[in-house]
Amino acid sequence: MALPRKQERKKFGSGEILQEAAPPLASDLSSCLEDIKRTWQRTNNNIAGLWQDWPKIAGEPLASNCSPISLRRGVLLIGVKHPQWLQALQYNRPQLLARLRAQGHEIKDLRIQQYQPKATKKVLESEQSIWAKHPSRIDVHGISKCTKCSSPSPAGELAMWGMCGFCRCKTILSSNH
Ligand SMILES: [Zn+2]
Fold first, then answer.
1. What is the C-alpha to C-alpha distance for residues 77 and 64, in angstroms, rounded to an integer?
2. pTM above 0.70, yes or no
3. Ligand 1: distance of its center to the CA of 129 in Å?
4. pLDDT more than 90, % of the chain
5. d(CA 47, CA 8)
6. Which residues lie closer than 8 Å to 66 by C-beta, 6 or more apart?
7. In the CATH scheme, what is the code of domain 43-116?
8. Any bridge partners for residue 144, and if so which?
9. What is the CA(168)–ligand 1 centre distance, in A?
10. In a 3-state reduction of DSSP, which class is residue 78?
11. Residue 44: what pLDDT?
12. How close is the Cα of 177 to the center of ligand 1, in Å?
């Protein structure tokens, strides 16, 4: 259940834009976190408890190389970072299952999946490509004179904003007042 949020007017350049008002912090944030936690626990049974017990159940070094991803209808899915740990986990599967049950987790079956945090890699790649085209890079764009303050500035900045980055910041700040 999402509460309708107030909109507030914000100055943008010479005009105004409507923007969602920031939610009041503290109480709203903690109740939101509680909601997430409850939903999470409902959909994932007792996986939260399982995460807490995981280092004890799996033992090192298994615990830090494999982690429970989801628990649905008694089937526990375990993610493994590297193929060699996939094998180790397959090998330890019967003991792991026994230990999970001994700790009171109702697990019918274990499934093991290689898990790669692809999202993180994508973000890094896009950050790199953004930087490759960044207007403040002198080595790519060369250097030129700012039309406003006449100081030597990256040509990429002048091409993008018609002024250097410093002048652009001053312009943005002064238009906000
Ligand atoms: Zn300038």
1. 16
2. no
3. 26
4. 3
5. 40
6. 58, 78, 79, 80, 81, 85, 89, 112
7. 3.30.300.180
8. 153
9. 7
10. strand
11. 47
12. 20
Q: Which two tokens stand for residue 29?
A: 């944030």
Domain boundaries, the chain: 43-116, 134-175
Query: 75 CA to middle of ligand 1, Å?
Result: 62
- Between the CA of 2 and the centroid of ligand 1 the distance, in Å, is 45
Is pLDDT larger for residue 117 or for residue 92?
Answer: 92
User: Nearest-5° angle of CA 56, CA 59, CA 62?
Assistant: 135
- Does 78 score more than 70 pLDDT? yes
| Residue 12 confidence (pLDDT) above 60 | no
Q: From ligand 1's centre to the CA of 153, what distance in Å?
A: 7
Residue among 140, 176, 50 at smallest CA distance from 103: 50
Q: Spell 76-92 as b/e; 16+ CB within 10 A means b.
A: bbbbbeeeebbebbeeb
Distance 28 CA to ligand 1 centre (A): 43
